[in-house]
Amino acid sequence: MTETSRRIAMIGLGSMGMGMARALLAAGHSVGGYDVTPAATATLATAGGHAAASPGAAAKGADIVVVVVVNAAQTETVLFGDNGLVPMLVAGSVVISCATMAPDAAKALAARCAEHGILYLDAPMSGGAVRAGTGELTFMASGTPEAFAAARPALDAMAGKVYELGDAAGIGASFKMVNQLLAGVHIAAACEAITFASKMGLDIAKVYEVITASAGNSWMFENRVPHILEGDYSPRSAVNIFTKDLGIVSDIGRAETFPLPIAASALQMFLMTAAAGMGRDDDASPARLIAQITGVNLPAAKAQ
Questions:
Q1: Where in the chain is the domain with CATH 1.10.1040.10?
Q2: Predicted pLDDT at 3
Q3: Strands 30-34 and 7-11
Q4: Residues 6+ away with beta carbon under 8 Å from 75
């Protein structure tokens, strides 16, 4: 430990959390971690971190806790459930909450942490597993100035860009909902476009080359279509992530009496893909569903 290093707990060691843990280790921090999958905590130990048997054990003695789980319910469990981490933290410690969730859920979790003297930074992120490992994520963060200050050593290691969006939890979550609306729509559109190209008898590898140099390109087209070209549907981000996130978007739209027809169409595409048994597969899998329905040929899917 040096004057600038911190004891940091990483809760959730999937593709994103593990990359973030590696970035923290590379910056010289001491990292303890927990995941429901024992192999993930073993991987962290091999990388130089400390494996823990529960969220509370990982958080013991930590200045900063980074929670990278799927949703608000999982976040609540690791914070306040059996062997949760909040009782193990001293006043003034900070929780960096990265799960995508409804703004009201982020506000409620921040309020519960405040009752225990724990700072809470609403900090969903974007960028993918590769950028997680290189410390180049984008964080859409909101919280008190004290929460930002306490979280800064970890953010500096994990982020290429931190947007400080307000002084209250829920604002960051709202920005992430806008991002997820666009991300889900763009993935669905990319899957539709590449299968449409195949239906027209085009070389879809050449389509990828041309479109990524043209105005119709998007970050998601450029990032996800290679999964389709390679027939590799091992989950970097799963279909079920977007059934959840676009579901939250839909819930907010209904509550606000705000129409979201394009997001609704994308949600239905992901729901159909999940119903076809591909919910845990890569979120480029709607292309496989469209191909199955229409008889289009795509590169054969590799065994996972």
A1: 173-294
A2: 60
A3: parallel
A4: 67, 69, 97, 99, 101, 105, 109
Backbone angles phi, psi at 148, to 5 degrees: -60, -45
Closest CA relative to residue 184, chosen from 241, 138, 140, 234: 241
The predicted structure's pLDDT at residue 2: 58
Q: What is the pLDDT of residue 9?
A: 98
Active site residues: 176
Third-level CATH fold of 173-294: N-(1-d-carboxylethyl)-l-norvaline Dehydrogenase; domain 2 (1.10.1040)
CATH 3.40.50.720 region(s) of the chain? 7-169
Q: Is 92 left (phi over 0), alpha (psi -120 to 50) or beta?
A: left
| Alpha-carbon gap, residue 218 to 45, rounded angstroms | 37
What does 19-69 look like in DSSP terms, one character per residue?
A: HHHHHHHHTT-EEEEE-SSHHHHHHHHHHT-EE-SSHHHHHTT-SEEEE--
Superfamily of domain 7-169: NAD(P)-binding Rossmann-like Domain (3.40.50.720)
| Residue 11: Cβ-neighbour burial (10 angstroms; 0-12, 13-18, 19+) | buried
How many C-beta neighbours within 10 Å does residue 206 have? 10
**pTM for the full predicted model:** 0.93
Residue 91 Ramachandran class (φ > 0 left, ψ -120 to 50 alpha, else beta)? beta
User: What does each C-alpha distance from 18 to 25, 33, 69, 89, 120 come to in angstroms?
Assistant: 11, 9, 12, 22, 21
As given in the structure block, the two tokens for residue 6 are 């911190």
Phi-psi bin for 264: left (phi > 0), alpha (psi -120 to 50), beta?
Answer: alpha
Residue ranges, the chain, pLDDT below 70 = 1-3
Instruction: For residue 157, give the H/E element and its range.
Output: helix 145-158
